[in-house]
């Protein structure tokens, strides 16, 4: 099976959905971008325009590529039929399940649904679908245009044809795809949980400020420190991932969510996307 979607729908126009739309459009696909929040898909398009024109001004891509990429992304006000849907909505199993049920009423039976979930069981998300074999995890990393890695996540019912087809597509988009069975947190997020958790524990112990923790880890060779990385990811998303991994590991204490992060979410300090997290953003 070769996946060369003439109609590609990205659902969720937040950090990840906008990045996925950009990468797909840059690879030559026409992309429909939908978000449940009125105006969000248009806002994402406007933000993409700003960042692509910025890249063109810096000479990182040509103005023609920037213009062509933008022209291929069309914000839409309702879900549409498509050959491939990439779901990048909120990290919430019930919300994703409800969306898939709506999509199945619209999609042809052979259409593929890829979920960008960071941590929710693809096996469990597929349960209840009319065609569970067409659901596969396609886990991009943030920022999507920059990060090469993609985890292709197999649920128990995922068709090998579907998994291989999305792998091939991701490679054509310049990504490096690795395969993982659907276990809590998959590969990267499982390993990364303690990285965030220990930084949050240090903060809870008042051992050091975020700036100091980040500076230490950068000096140790990490590209970003854990606090600035959590600000980039979004604390709402990161907390949802931690809760999902904690629950899926039968409440193993190693994955206990942090009160520090819960407080940030409760305050609406979600990180870069809300203008404030551990740090403030202009
Ligand atoms: P985000 O908060 O930036 O964006 C989510 C968007 O989904 C919002 O615009 C929201 O309005 C929209 N939305 C919510 N419910 C919807 C629905 N039912 N239908 C349509 N749109 C809906 O979140 P994000 O960071 O882009 O994360 C999206 C997904 O990608 C999550 O599953 C997350 O775990 C995963 N992910 C996030 C990161 C990251 O670093 N932030 C990395 C990899 C994967």
From TrEMBL:
Keyword line: Oxidoreductase
Domain annotation 3-hydroxyacyl-CoA dehydrogenase NAD binding: ranges: 10-181
MF terms (GO), sorted A to Z: (3S)-3-hydroxyacyl-CoA dehydrogenase (NAD+) activity
E.C. no: 1.1.1.35
Domain 3-hydroxyacyl-CoA dehydrogenase C-terminal as annotated: residue spans: 185-281
Top EC class for this record: oxidoreductase
Name the UniProt record assigns to this protein: 3-hydroxyacyl-CoA dehydrogenase
Source lineage: Bacteria, Pseudomonadati, Pseudomonadota, Betaproteobacteria, Burkholderiales
Entire protein: shown range: 1 to 282 of 478
């Amino acid at each position: 099976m070769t996946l060369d979607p003439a109609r590609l729908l990205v659902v969720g126009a937040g950090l990840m959905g906008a990045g996925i739309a950009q990468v797909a459009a840059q690879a030559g696909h026409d992309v429909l971008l939908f978000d449940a929040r009125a105006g969000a898909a248009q806002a994402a398009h406007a933000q993409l325009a700003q960042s692509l024109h910025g890249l063109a001004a810096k000479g990182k891509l040509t103005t023609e590529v920037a213009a062509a990429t933008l022209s291929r992304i069309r914000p839409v006000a309702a879900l549409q039929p498509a050959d491939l849907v990439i779901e990048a909505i909120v990290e919430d199993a019930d919300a994703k399940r409800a969306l898939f049920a709506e999509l199945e009423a619209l999609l042809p039976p052979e259409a593929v649904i890829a979920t960008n979930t960071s941590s929710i069981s693809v096996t469990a998300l597929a349960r209840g679908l009319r065609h569970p074999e067409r659901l596969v995890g396609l886990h991009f990393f943030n920022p999507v245009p920059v990060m090469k890695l993609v985890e292709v996540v197999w649920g128990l019912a995922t068709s090998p044809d579907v998994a291989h087809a999305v792998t091939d597509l991701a490679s054509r988009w310049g990504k490096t795809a690795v395969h993982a069975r659907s276990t809590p947190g998959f590969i990267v997020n499982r390993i990364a949980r303690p990285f965030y958790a220990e930084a949050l524990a240090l903060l809870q112990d008042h051992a050091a400020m975020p700036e100091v923790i980040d500076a230490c880890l950068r000096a140790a060779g990490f590209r970003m420190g854990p606090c600035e990385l959590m600000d980039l990811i979004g604390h709402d998303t990161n907390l949802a991932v931690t809760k999902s991994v904690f629950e899926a590991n039968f409440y193993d204490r190693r994955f206990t969510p942090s009160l520090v992060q819960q407080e940030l979410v409760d305050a609406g300090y979600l990180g870069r996307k809300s203008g404030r997290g551990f740090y403030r953003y202009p």
